[in-house]
Amino acid sequence: MNVVVPVASTRITLRVNGASTTVDGSCAATLADLLRDGCGLTGVKIGCEAGDCGACTVLLDGEQVCACLVPAGHTAGRAVTTVEARDNPLLDQLRRAFLAHAAAQCGACTPGMLMAATDCLQKNPKPSHQEIADALGGVLCRCTGYVKIVEAVHAVAHGEQPRVAQAHIGMSVGRSIPRVDGWAKVSGTDLFGADDAPRDCLWVRVIRSRHERAAFSFGDLASWRAAHPGIEAVLTQADIPGENRFGIFASTRDQPVFAEGETRFRGEAVAAVVGTRAAVEAVRDVDFPVTWIPLEPLRAIDRAVAENARAIHATHPDNVLTRGYLNRGDVTVGHSQGSVTAEGEFETAFVEHAYIEPEAGWARLNTNGVMEIHACTQAPAMDRESVAIILGVPEERVRIVPTACGGGFGGKLDVSVQPLLAVAAWVTKKPARMIYTRTESMASTTKRHPSHIRARASAMKDGRLTAFEMRADFNTGAYASWGPTVANRVPVHATGPYKIPHVRNRTRAIYTNDTPAGAFRGFGVPQAAIAGETLMDDLAERIGMDRWDFRRLNAIGHGDVTPTGQTLHASAGLPQCLDALKIDWEQAMWEAQMHNATRAERYRRGVGVACMWYGCGNTSLSNPSKMRITLDRDGKLVFWNGAVDIGQGSSTVLLQIASDELGLPVEDFEFVIGDTALTPDAGKTSASRQTFVSGKAAMLAARDIRRKIIRQANVGTRARLSLRGAELHVQDGDARRVIDLRVLAGAEEFALVGEGVYDPPTTMLDENGQGVPYATYGFGAQIAEVEVDMRLGGVKVLHVAAAHDVGRAINPQLVEGQIHGGIAQGLGLALMEEFIPGRTENLHDYLIPTVGDMPRVTVRLIEDREPEGPFGAKGVGEPALIATAPAILGAIRHATGVTMRRVPVLPHRLWEAMRFHRVGHV
Ligand code: FES
After folding, report:
1. pTM higher than 0.90, yes or no?
2. Is residue 144 lining ligand 1, measured as CB closer than 6 Å?
3. Atom of ligand 1 nearest to the CA of 355
């Protein structure tokens, strides 16, 4: 939130979207505030308040500007155009193109992108791809990888009519129909956590530790509050009505809402002030009555597990939160059977999710005693459980209503604003809202686990792998969050998708005084893949074998056994993925060779290849999803879907599945999504599980209601259905039936209800990590082509070719979008992203890929149908990311001869490695 600086004149008159508008300028420091708060134009999104993300881009006198940087007082008499503008044919064309090309995923960047695109085409009606990229360069997108955005703008510029796939009855699966929530995203009407709240809300602001570790004590809070008119409450741990703890698993619920006497990481909450917006914004941290005594922090894995290291939590004297273990065969024997062995140490950094929407929401205590929380989330049912424990009430007294979610990637699986809002509303008995600043979001929420990995692998002369072992330590930061999941998922996946008879993997999640690490697209598997794939390159090189051939030889496939002893009976399409990329590999290798042979020394090209696999859903844990479809007495067909769509498109994909299985068109459905008071629990949106698990539940719910219809009509199973008001028409050959839904419903609201529950079949892992941890796996392979500046160490990724086995692409365009976005995040992991607490807590110092960083991308979809999945589908959200970074590292090595074992490969690191460790490893 911005501190309000009253402008000279409190009334500002300007033209907004073509209409003369006068607003109270005293409420607005910036144009963004003026538009959002003064005009109600919440299509102007706030992502950083510093001009770094561009989400608030609008046109000011026809030029794109970041509205958060323009003082409100400078806008008098000027013309502003926002995404809400009507009667703007160019903007309208762009909206339709964004819809047709699936250029909006979560939609948080979409208004800014649309305005930047409008600016671009107004100035240059026929821009090239490069000119479009240049024009959009000020707006960050974390979801799409920019590919479809640029395509959409290019299509408008070159007069291409948007081609929208039609979803015919029973034939929507496999078609790229536009996302069902798309119009809200391109029109600026999608409401995120910060976009809507009751007008009488109090505001909440958190007082946070600026020390990695500190003891603290409060002064006279009552007197301080009395001296600050407008502050209605100061909240501390003493105000928590239930348990001052939250976390993912019951056994590791270790994070306090407000710290108790000592903070364990920089950014931890100790108190919150609640009051009018002006009063809350006027509070200066330095004036708040808290005394800090900084203490020596433990900030690295090695120090935290050193002998005599202080325990960060009394429950874990050695600072080891949890251990993971897998053993198959005899790894000593396996190494001895190999002709060559490769080994190495690897290090990866904290990575920030950098979703464009910072956490936000509001809460109120309803008169029936139910705490109602509206906030962005990936896991409404888990949020409800956490808040109930914190308030000390049954879960039925908490209702979570998810707002639109402006990206998550795992970072919104943990609660953030929810407990704070609940306690504020509980104590004051008034509605309360809060919006995290970008810095607050980055400093206080979870990250990708930094890792320190040692790995060793052996292979025979003919290339067949014989042994693999890994020891991986993950820095879980001050609190557990998803640390146990990372420690348990990595041993299963660490080998990569290869046939290896002898395997031993050991992991630890270790407490430190760093920012808590949690879930981030892959749960540790991307880090492990960097180590494993580098060793695959090492082995291939030592044997003298082509890297693609080496992987193809060892690729796991149908009938093969995984390191957990699971036989892959179906859907294991890695060989097909590699085969699909063979042509890309040969062409890229030839082009790199030609380039390096004929061009100057300075820029060398390299090509890398990497494979991945990823289990869909929880590891050996029950993982159910429940879906409901109702047909009411008036013919209203409603899909009650508890799976939150965080931009990946699950609302659309699940609807396609339900529509085809039921036999009614997607247009007939209304839907309710994620509201815990209305929808069954579909589980969290994570682990690439919604298409596979919730998709199957949706299919079963549709099958259930169709079965009831068929029985009611007494017709054959192939009957065709159509809804006409309160009549359901059923036709089976010459037999026609009309079901009067009002008669069927009688006194009930619903005439028909279908429910489906699906829990993927898995088994517990034994003490050696043997069992069936996942019902199915996604597989993929990617090839990266890079150009390295040999003088300065810069790396430019030129092209990524990605082949992924998705079982069945329910909506191919959305699947491609996931792969594009995953590649962008993998590129960031490899080359630029490194979160350092206290130093990179904004989007200026913490860099994520811009449109200018994205390479050309080729996607090849492999559909090796999964019998367990809905219409054969599996998940793709996390698989899309995992192979990218190792493929890029392999390409850097190919270009330079240097193996980089620490990411991100920043230019100075590569420069140093090329000069001083040319044959060694950094
Ligand atoms: Fe661009 Fe989500 S669609 S940030």
Report:
1. yes
2. yes
3. 4
